[in-house]
């Protein structure tokens, strides 16, 4: 398995939560970011956080904060590109990144291993997580070599949908069960926090 560098995507505006940083919301007695970084960090060569604005609000987490360089909150694809560029500039021997949104506190501990294995078996470029008959395109394993094509898509085509970019390449979806809980559950609305607390009690 090729080593992957983890990129936690926190570059959004969290409109449905009043602009609050979802990564900083407490679930199970700790910020989502703490829980997520622990789960993902055990699987990766290293971790960085994609976030915009004042990086000081994440100072206590010990993560390198990497901002988008595409203007105007261009969405998760801009975060994927920022992660690719960061790894290409700093870790020449690392060929892949794995991206996970910052509002997913319960990602599986075998995420990277299963994505990598499935991608290799399928001869694919990208591996995407899937659960409940839904592809989670922002939870994926990407080769850093796609960064030139991704930048062109973002800048020249103003492409914003992650799925639209993924579908340009050979990709494979890797299924996870949703029982006893969906490992890709994300905190999008205030009511999701209560649901997250219930899941945290099981983990």
Can you characterise this structure?
- The protein has helices at 32-41, 76-90, 111-122, 147-155, 162-166, 190-200, and strands at 4-9, 26-27, 30-31, 47-50, 64-66, 96-101, 126-131, 134-143, 171-176.
- Helix 2 (76-90) packs antiparallel against helix 4.
- Strands 5-4-1-6-8-7-9 form a 7-stranded mixed beta sheet, sandwiched between helices.
- With 203 residues, it is of the alpha/beta class.
- Helix content is 31%, strand content 22%.
- The chain has one domain: Spore Coat Polysaccharide Biosynthesis Protein SpsA, Chain A.
- The model has no long low-confidence stretch (mean pLDDT 92).
- The chain is globular.
- The protein starts with a strand and ends with a helix.
- The chain contains 6 helices and 9 strands; from the N terminus they run E-E-E-H-E-E-H-E-H-E-E-H-H-E-H.
What brief labels describe this structure?
about 200 residues, alpha/beta, Spore Coat Polysaccharide Biosynthesis Protein SpsA, Chain A, seven-stranded mixed sheet, two-stranded antiparallel sheet, 6 helices, 9 strands, about 30% helix
**Strands across the major sheet, in which order?**
5-4-1-6-8-7-9
* Fraction of residues in helix: 25-40%
* Span between termini: 27 Å
Question: Radius of gyration over alpha carbons?
Answer: 16 Å
Reported for the largest beta sheet, the result is:
7 strands, mixed
Order of SSEs, N→C? EEEHEEHEHEEHHEH
Low-confidence stretches: none
Instruction: Tell me, briefly, the overall form.
Output: globular
Number of strands: 9
- The number of helical runs is 6
Name of the CATH class: Alpha Beta
Indicate the structural class: alpha/beta
The average pLDDT is: 92
Number of domains: 1
In CATH terms, what is the architecture? Answer: Alpha-Beta Complex
% residues in beta strands: 15-25%
Q: Identify the CATH homologous superfamily.
A: Spore Coat Polysaccharide Biosynthesis Protein SpsA, Chain A
CATH topology: Spore Coat Polysaccharide Biosynthesis Protein SpsA, Chain A
